[in-house]
């Protein structure tokens, strides 16, 4: 099962409890994965569980049943694509309520959480790095129009989440490529199992990268910068274990914590992260190493 499916499966376990949250979720879902107009609304899904989930929401919120209007086979993935629609007499009232729900999505944490979940069901996907593959961390949401993308982005950024955007063919995409940004999103929608898996993958990846770096350092082809980085991490780890970092000035303490948290970053990348020059970073690291060496003299 891929990571997108794992997130969806987790979210399916918790349907919205309040009508307002159901409206918020349905509004985002239809914006990303369907359509809604004054004369009705529809959505297409390749996942029967997701389709059943939203059919249930429509039934409970509006008291109506949607019609299966089309069933096709996706030739690329071999999956059925089911399209459900409603064009009954309540269509205009539904449209008004769903539009209002989208505007109100930022008004409370539960509205926002429901909206962000609905958008993932409708047009979201997430991938994690895989051993032997070139995939990295990637979360994205796909929309049909610039207006839909802008509406989603207002809610997304209103939840203090960050995303970039692009136009891909005829669609509009909001995306994140940082594991920290993706963690923030998973926490915001309370997908805690998925959050834990991402953290586990990130930790394993960092450990593997660090192990490879240390092995390279001890080999005949190790370069001086990698050796220095490994030595810094070892020294700073020892200082932290003894609590020696706690009393340091903030710049030195922040540098030590950043080096330990990002063992695979180059000095150039680390200086950019801390917002200092490479020379300034080297000066801080030399002071920290002198502190460690003095502690062992």
**Portion of residues within helices:** 55-70%
Main β-sheet description: 4 strands, antiparallel
Give me the side-by-side strand order of the main sheet: 1-2-4-3
CATH fold-type name of the largest domain: Endonuclease I-creI
CATH architecture of the largest domain: Roll
| SSE order | HHEEHEEHHEEHEEHHHHHH
Total domain modules: 2
Counting helices, strands and paired strands, the structural category is alpha+beta
Assembly of the depicted chains: single chain
Beta fraction of the residues?
A: 15-25%
- What's the CATH class label of the largest domain? Alpha Beta
Would you report the number of β strands?
Answer: 8
| Mean pLDDT across every amino acid position | 86
- What is the CATH superfamily classification of the largest domain? Homing endonucleases
- Apparent shape: elongated
Evaluate the radius of gyration.
25 Å
- What is the CA–CA distance across the termini? 54 Å
Walkthrough of the structure:
With 297 residues, this protein is an alpha+beta fold. The protein folds into two domains: 3-201, Homing endonucleases (Endonuclease I-creI), CATH 3.10.28; 223-295, Arc Repressor Mutant, subunit A. The protein has twelve helices and eight strands. It has helices at 3-12, 19-33, 48-62, 91-103, 109-123, 146-158, 179-188, 192-218, 224-241, 250-261, 267-274, 278-295, and strands spanning 34-37, 40-45, 67-74, 79-86, 124-127, 138-143, 164-168, 171-176.
């Amino acid at each position: 099962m891929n990571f997108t499916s794992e997130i969806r499966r987790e979210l399916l376990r918790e349907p919205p409890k309040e009508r307002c949250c159901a409206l918020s979720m349905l509004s985002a879902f239809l914006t990303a994965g369907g359509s809604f107009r004054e004369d009705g609304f529809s959505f297409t899904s390749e996942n029967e569980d997701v389709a059943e989930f939203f059919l249930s929401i429509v039934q409970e919120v509006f008291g109506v049943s949607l019609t299966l209007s089309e069933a096709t086979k996706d030739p690329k993935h071999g999956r059925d694509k089911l399209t459900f629609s409603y064009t009954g007499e309540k269509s205009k009232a539904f449209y008004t309520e769903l539009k209002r729900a989208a505007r109100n999505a930022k008004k409370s944490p539960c509205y926002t959480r429901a909206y962000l979940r609905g958008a993932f069901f409708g047009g979201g996907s997430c991938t994690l790095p895989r051993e032997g593959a070139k995939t990295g961390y990637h979360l994205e949401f796909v929309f049909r129009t610039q207006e839909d993308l802008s509406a989603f982005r207002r809610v997304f950024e209103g939840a203090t989440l960050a995303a970039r955007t692009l136009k891909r063919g005829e669609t509009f995409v909001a995306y994140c490529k940082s594991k920290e940004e993706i963690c923030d999103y998973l926490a915001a929608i309370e997908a805690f199992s998925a959050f834990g898996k991402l953290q586990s993958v990130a930790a394993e990846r960092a450990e593997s990268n660090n192990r490879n770096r240390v092995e390279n350092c001890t080999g005949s082809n190790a370069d001086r910068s990698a050796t220095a980085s490994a030595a810094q991490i070892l020294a700073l780890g020892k200082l932290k274990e003894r609590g020696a970092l706690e009393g340091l000035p903030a710049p030195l303490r922040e540098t030590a914590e950043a080096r330990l948290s990002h063992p695979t970053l180059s000095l150039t990348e680390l200086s950019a992260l801390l917002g200092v020059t490479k020379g300034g970073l080297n000066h801080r690291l030399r002071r920290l190493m002198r502190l460690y060496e003095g502690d062992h003299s």
